[in-house]
Amino acid sequence: MEAQSLPAALALVAGGGAGLSPEKRAALGVSLPLLQHNYRFERVWFWGCIQGVRGAYYIAEGLRPDRAAPRIRLYSLNCLDWSLLTPATKEMVAQAEQLKGRFQGDPSFEYNFAEINPQAAETLFEGGKEPVIKEEARLIATIEQIDRAVGIVPRGAFVKTPLGSVHENRHFEGLSLVEAKKLSSYFHFTEPVNLKNKTLLEKANLDPSTDFLDSLEHDIPQGSWSVQLEKGGAVVVLRSLLWLGLTFYHVPMTKQYGYIYFGTGEKNVDLPFML
After folding, report:
1. How far is Cα 271 from Cα 176, in angstroms, rounded to an integer?
2. What is the pTM of this model?
């Protein structure tokens, strides 16, 4: 969610129990503007927090003018000192998917694949690589997984230019209350997958400038999103049941929206059996 509106946004998602202490809020209020200035970001989003056994990782994302460009991610252990994270790779994500259990809270902690998955360890050995993965790499991969799976925006909030770049829609004034309660009114803010499989007839009614992303209505498994009205019906809140801790909010008929993650960084793999 937008760093500048963080205090107000946290109040809107507090119904799920997510929040920060006054000390952490004060620290973020000082460090995030400095982060934006020092790295020359156009915007800074506070992504959320992954809670480990011995500590927590606080995540921020720096945005460039083209919103389709890869985001620059940083993490902090105290909300004051920030460290850059390298871009996630397919190999990194594949390795992280095999790790189970809580984060430790120590970026230098090493997971040994020989103890977790002997077959994966043998493959790494054959490739001439050590069968270990640092927690920092797992953190990078987990943030990428969560953003791809449940990082969402309202329909119309962004527009795609004929040259392919993506920018904020200055004419976006928010969804109506009726539209805000529909899953089809929200898009995954990542490279589309289902959109490419649509037929020409299905694409005929789509606006290429705004409907260039995948909507939530076809997410698998169905029922992986909880849609609720809070604050007396003034706020629409979506919560992911696949990545517990991901909360999205939107105030209908306004430009106020965003998502934040407060969780352990573990995917709810049992969800298909719970629905």
Report:
1. 30
2. 0.88
